[in-house]
Amino acid sequence: MQTQLASWAQDTDFGREADEILRRCVHCGFCLATCPTYQILGDELDSPRGRIYQMKQVLEGVQPTYVTQQHLDRCLTCRNCETTCPSGVEYGKLVDIGRQLVSERVQRPWHQRLLRGALRRLLMSRAFAPLYRAGRWVRPALPPVLRGKITEARPAGPLPVQPRRHARQVLMLANCVQPAMLPSIDAATQRVLDAVGVGSRFAAGSGCCGAINFHLDAQEAAREQMRANIDAWLPLLESGQVEAVIVNASGCGGMIKDYAHHLQHDPAYAERAARLMPFVQDIAEFLAPLATEVRAKMRRAPGRTAFHPPCTLQHWQGLRPLTERLLAELGFDLQAFGEPHLCCGSAGTYSITQPGLSKSLRDRKLQAIQAALPETIVSSNVGCICHLQSGTDTPVRHWIETVDEVMRD
After folding, report:
1. Is 2.30.29 the CATH classification of the domain at 297-408?
2. How far is C-alpha 198 from the geometric centre of its chain's CA atoms?
3. N or C end of the chain: smaller count of CB under 10 Å?
């Protein structure tokens, strides 16, 4: 694709990056076949190719409008198009640039600004956990749209005793919403790690991965969170006190593995972010070499299961094959289903900011999964788990919870 960037975009870091990505696109249209929003809406402006053209126009000096912003907002950032693209177009990086440029030039309606600001502040505040627990008490009386956002409580269960007794130690991510919504995931992760001789802990000063801020028009606030996590983790990792940062929410894992990209122009943190990258592992990556030891601790095999691979696991991190292979080695009776590559519609706060599209994608995903008649649906991301559970009576869990359960049966 030929480009003629506007003078204000030339010779800037974002301009050079965007120009290089744009020039790779050859308009082939392969991305249309795998774009979730295009599958639902059938509008090419809501496809990767259409959005690329709109972002190209902005970078060439065309004033964006609220309509431009709407088309970019509807993108789930699933990166399915990157998996499909034969030219290696890094669409995810481009849409980050495009959204930032449009947000600087188009003021959102007041109700959108209010919603996005409220989400950023609430989801990362100390008030979220008690409010969420209170929501469970009144859940039956809530409107259906709110009731679906509140999961039923799952007891976390006992945590390992003296996890620091193990020679092997890892850090876990102090997620912002997962501990309030499904504390059972972190607890199960810690118990499974403990069972194979690995202690786990949380680093003081660490916190949210930055994804919520980044995708709600606050990219610099997100970078501050990235810097704080690097400061908390890197000394412990490089001193040998711990060997890895283990992430059990693939959305957070995908964001953390992009720290080096997001901070590449930060003179104080670019090199430090790059040093962090080899230490960051999804829980499946970490346990894959220990599959035999994990299986030996399991008292029975899990039943008939459908594994929903989150977009952040399969398209961002490329870990779907490894995870499915691990689950098979652990005895999961995995059932194949149609369109496993398509997004379920969760996508962080997307189910709140784009409820109609999100619900359509959820129902499409569940229809495909239910055709396989699973006893349980498992996934690797808290957002996908809660979103799918809101549309089905079939139990939806993190696969690490299932492993932990059959270890304790």
Report:
1. no
2. 25
3. C
Please give the full DSSP string across 117-181, using - where no structure is assigned: HHHHHHHTSTTHHHHHHHHHHTGGGS-HHHHTTSPPP----PPPSSGGGSSEEEEE---SSHHHH
**Contact (CB, 8 A) for 78 and 95:** no
The residue with greater pLDDT, 105 or 133, is 105
Superfamily assignment of 13-105 in CATH?
Alpha-helical ferredoxin (1.10.1060.10)
Residues 82, 85, 86, CA angle at the centre, nearest 5°?
140
How many beta carbons lie within 10 A of that of residue 249, not counting itself? 31
Q: What is the pLDDT of residues 344-391, one digit of tens each?
A: 999 989 998 999 999 999 999 999 999 999 999 999 999 999 999 999
Whether 13-105 and 297-408 share one fold: the answer is no
Among 257, 259, 265, 270, which Cα is nearest to 226's? 259
Tokens for 2, please give them.
């030929």
Predicted local distance difference test score (pLDDT) of residue 125: 87
SS3 at position 368: helix
Which pTM value belongs to this model?
0.94
| Cβ atoms of residues 210 and 223 within 8 Å | yes
Report pLDDT digits (tens) over 14-27: 999 999 999 999 98
Instruction: Please state, rounded to an integer, the average pLDDT across all residues of the chain.
Output: 94
Distance of alpha carbon 35 from alpha carbon 339, whole angstroms = 12
State the Cα–Cα distance between residues 179 and 58, nearest whole angstrom. 40
Angstrom CA distances, 149 to 143, 208, 292, 355, stand at 10, 20, 37, 11
Residue 171 has pLDDT above 90, yes or no: yes
Contacts of 200-204 with C-beta under 8 Å, sequence gap 24+, read 200/160, 200/163, 200/169, 200/170, 200/171, 200/172, 200/246, 201/163, 201/164, 201/169, 201/170, 201/171, 201/172, 201/242, 202/171, 202/172, 202/173, 202/174, 203/171, 203/174, 203/232, 203/233, 203/236, 204/232
What DSSP assignment string belongs to 47-59? SHHHHHHHHHHHH
Pairing of strands 245-247, 304-307: unpaired
Q: Assess if CATH 3.40.50 describes domain 163-286.
A: yes
Quick check: helix, strand or coil at residue 198?
A: strand
Show me where the domains of the chain are located.
13-105, 110-147, 163-286, 297-408
